[in-house]
Amino acid sequence: MTPGEDGPKRTVHGQLVKVLTHRREDRGMTLEPFAGRCVRRGEVHELVTTDHTETAAGARIDRVGFLGFLEIGCAGVIDRGDEVWTEGRRIGTVLGFDACHFPNHYNILIHTPELRTGPQLGLAPEMQMRFTQG
After folding, report:
1. In degrees, to the nearest 5, what angle opens at C-alpha 111 toward C-alphas 28 and 47?
2. How many angstroms separate the CA atoms of 128 and 63, rounded?
3. pTM for the predicted model, two decimal places
4. pLDDT level of residue 4 (50, 70, 90 thresholds)
């Protein structure tokens, strides 16, 4: 992203529709070259934690913890660096996107100090999630 091209934006929110419980050390996701992605109301995307920090296009992401699937509640833009929140708790920041399942859904990669799964964060269906500008 070029400095100065980012202006204010709305908070993207949604509800969990499925909680995921597993983790992988060899997942082989690939970071998309885009720092942001538009999302539409009603789309469902997967939320994945990682302790990786590399943001270069094509970076391989192996260590992941799966949080769940989120239904987008309002159209907007999710950007690298956005903060991810649920129930007043900050989960981490958006690292980027993996499109191995697109157009079905994006994997939204969330940087966290250590891998977390849905149950480890006490997630449940219908919980609200928010992406706020970082």
Report:
1. 70
2. 25
3. 0.93
4. low
